[in-house]
Specification:
It is built from 27 helices and 4 strands. The two termini are about 25 Å apart.
């Protein structure tokens, strides 16, 4: 298990690693916002039924225009329970007598109403166009708005299962590039979809490819960096995602047409696809899949880019085979998906990692929903979410490198649960304090999630890392879907969902100590490495193995 020594020899954190990580992070700035895009492209604007005397451009029952718009609205649209114009009903015929009533209808019968047979009129002051106005996803069709989001989430789940396995089978680079192209084409075509069914199908493809792009980005970073830079690499990736959220809030504020916003986040991915031809395949994956010649070629390329030409020339197949002998022996056995849960030590890790990710995602997305109830503008909330996560991830980086993976996760999970519980004790009138506690909760949840990403990638062997990351991500998505469902419990008590979110924060903080510590430890490459591992063995092996490449 000396591949990390080869990485040090060819430059460690050199020019190649920095350039590749920069490209991956910039791509994620435009990839991840596709998850949040329908917060703006699927906004439901104010609406009412189309009425002849109000909205007919060619003729008007109002004659010379004696009555104003408010009066015509009063005789055409009934009032709802909040005494506002109804969104989904209109009077069968104008109720002129309502103009002469001062308050009560006790002596009159309820006027007959009907659904919006001629369509709707939308308030376009917030957004000039959304998918809701495009296909009239209101009233009886309002549930279809959730279908679009659901199709994207289903695509993410399916992509995590299928593409994670394909990445371990055919390589990270091939699947990464293919998914960039699919996301760019599906996202661009969605802007011109003539029917809602086709739009949902394209969103499914977008979600299907997005999961693999994000997973392979983290895998590339972890497998090309020495162990002591793993936390830094993951922090960079997650911080660029936070920057992407902030940019999305700003662009959505400027671009109010959903077609244009969809294209703005899809077309640049075509450029990323073209540039991705220079992304290097993981040499670690090539070696562990019994392709040492290709792995040697990639290592030499990295050495030359990092200015280590002498080291690159000195790298030969004999040096490579002697250095990674254990990895090459393990490569003779092809892993199966069932190995994740068949081998006892690996099964324990997978079950614990899945539980921790599931539990963290529940309060993470629960807090995201809570931010929308702070009374702020939706665009400002999006920017705030990303801005808070930036310093939180930097603090998490420092903690991961100093305190270790387990203590850092437990600390931030405890702080997140505490902030959620404290928020339930604060009255509605103390808005500033509620905003502060919610903001802290978002920061702590982001830091906890980053620690989970780092720890999970370090605990899973290279040969099946992408598949395992996909499965863990799927379980996390289940927790994300469960978070809004817990809001149903507010019918019993407004504090009940938040108590569940807090409990979901505290429990994984204890469970994480059942997993091994991986701070500054080399990555595991084979399933045999996991099964043979004993307490202290990795540290001893790290200290006792050192390979120096010299010119012969």
């Amino acid at each position: 298990m000396a591949f990390h020594e080869l990485l040090k020899e060819v430059g460690g954190l050199g020019r190649f690693q920095i350039l590749q990580m920069l490209f991956l992070c910039v791509s994620c700035t435009w990839v991840y916002p596709h998850v949040l895009l329908e917060n703006f492209t699927a906004v439901v604007p104010g609406h009412r039924c189309w009425v002849h005397i109000l909205d007919n451009d060619t003729a008007s029952a109002n004659g010379p225009g004696i009555l104003g718009q408010d009066a015509l609205l009063r005789v055409s649209i009934p009032l709802d329970s909040d005494l506002r114009p109804a969104k989904c009903r209109r009077f069968l015929r104008p109720q002129w007598q309502l103009l002469h009533l001062n308050g009560t209808l006790s002596n009159t019968s309820e006027p007959a109403t009907e659904p919006c047979a001629d369509g709707w009129v939308y308030d376009r002051s917030g957004s000039s166009s959304t998918i809701v106005t495009e296909w009239d996803l209101v009233c009886d069709s309002e549930s279809l708005n959730s279908v679009a989001k659901f199709s994207f989430m289903v695509g993410m789940v399916m992509g995590g299962i299928i593409l994670g396995h394909l990445s371990d089978r055919f390589g990270r680079r091939l699947i990464f590039r293919w998914c960039l192209l699919v996301l760019a084409v599906a996202g661009s075509c969605a802007a011109f979809a003539p029917t809602f069914l086709l739009y949902c199908s394209l969103r499914f493809l977008a979600g299907f490819s997005l999961t693999s792009i994000m997973t392979n980005t983290t895998v590339f970073i972890m497998e090309w960096l020495p162990p002591r830079f793993h936390a830094m690499g993951m922090t960079m990736a997650i911080c660029t995602v936070c920057v992407g959220q902030m940019i999305l809030g700003g662009l959505a504020f400027v671009i109010r047409d959903w077609h244009i916003l969809q294209l703005v986040y899809s077309l640049p991915l075509l450029i990323s696809f073209l540039l991705s031809r220079w992304v290097a395949e993981s040499a670690r994956w090539l070696i562990i899949t019994n392709q040492p010649e290709e792995g040697l070629k990639e290592l030499r390329k990295v050495a030359y880019v990092n200015g280590k030409k002498d080291v690159g020339d000195a790298l030969t197949m004999e040096v490579l085979r002697s250095t990674v002998q254990d990895e090459l022996e393990a490569a003779q056995t092809k892993p199966q998906l069932s190995d994740l849960f068949r081998m006892p030590n690996l099964r324990k890790r997978m079950c614990l990692l899945c539980f921790v990710r599931f539990a963290i995602c529940i309060p993470f997305y629960g807090l995201a929903l809570h931010l929308q109830h702070l009374g702020s503008h939706v665009f400002l909330v999006q920017v705030l979410f990303g801005a808070v996560s930036l310093p939180a991830n930097y603090v998490a980086l420092l903690a991961l490198n100093r305190l270790g993976r387990r203590v850092t996760q437990a600390l931030f999970l405890f702080l997140m649960g505490t902030s959620i519980l404290a928020g339930t004790l604060v009255s509605q009138e103390m808005q500033i304090l509620r905003v502060v506690l919610s903001t802290l909760g978002v920061g702590f949840s982001s830091a906890s999630l980053m620690g989970s990403f780092v720890h999970g990638n370090e605990l899973i062997p290279t040969i099946i890392r992408a598949t395992a990351s996909g499965i863990i991500g799927i379980v996390g998505n289940v927790g994300a879907a469960l978070a809004p469902l817990l809001m149903i419990l507010t019918v019993y008590s407004p504090h009940l969902p938040w108590i569940f979110y807090a409990v979901a924060s505290f429990i994984p903080g204890l469970v994480v100590f059942l997993l091994p510590e991986t701070k500054n430890q080399p990555l595991l490459d084979s399933i045999q490495d996991v099964e043979k591992e004993r307490k202290g063995s990795r540290k001893g092996k790290q200290e006792g193995t050192y390979v120096k490449v010299t010119r012969f």
